[in-house]
Amino acid sequence: MNHSTAARVLELLARNPEVDVLDLTGGAPELNESFRELVAGASALGRRVIDRCNLTVLLLPGQEETATFLADHRVEIVASLPCYTDEGVDAQRGRGVFERSVEALRLLNSLGYGRPRTGLILDLVYNPTGAFLPPPQDELEARYRIELRERLGVEFSRLVTITNMPIRRFAHDLLRRGELFSYMGLLVNHFNAATLPALMCRSLVSVGYDGQLHDCDFNLMLELPLGGRARSIWDVDDLRALDGDRVAVAGHCFGCTAGAGSSCGGSLVAAGRENLASSV
Q1: pTM of this prediction?
Q2: Which residue pairs from 220-227 have beta carbons closer than 8 angstroms and sit at least 24 positions apart in sequence?
Q3: In a designed cystine with 261, which of 127, 181, 194, 195 is the match (CB 3.0 to 4.6 A)?
Q4: What are the structural domain ranges in the chain?
Q5: pLDDT score for 27
């Protein structure tokens, strides 16, 4: 995202006070030239700012002050940690990633992130390593908390679970292994109508690096435009004009509606409601 696109995003935030969250993602958004401009600008407007951080970026050369910058602007951090063991993380993300992730978590803890009464939120993200649904979020969070606190002295605010979407590289891997159709069957057979009111596509607008608008980040990756009609941040001034638009949907949307549901904020329904809805 370049400067002109970032400036337009901030302009839209200023014009639309009902939009209260700026959620920054993109693999390693901290490396983008406009990252600090967006954080500082949105914070000055009184918005909640979320940084979806891969943790290891905080240890790269040139990023030594990034963690302090995030704390100074009270940015909420949502950090990927797909397992609480080095074997699990390194198998999914590469050798040494778990050790560096723990080092980054300790750095964030030292600044107050994940600590009680600091208000500095540090959430961790779990996503399955294969073609299955996440376990119950609350149960897995308790296990993460025990393992990370007792073994490593690491604290965090909460754990969120996200279902693997059958798109792009994951879909290709499933197809190569002959598991794509069975995984889609798993998602469809676990469709849960109780997730529908909380789906993120109903209240979120995803802005691509080029300013194009999408219903969610997954649709952005698939280049599905907002409501099926190409529009950009330069085509709209009042975001309330988007209220009531249709949402562009495809087969991957069953990933957000399976079991307890899935969103950028984790599960959408409690386990009891999940079990009830799934059994109907």
Answers
A1: 0.92
A2: 221/167, 221/168, 222/167, 222/168, 222/250, 222/252, 224/248, 224/250
A3: 195
A4: 1-161, 163-280
A5: 84
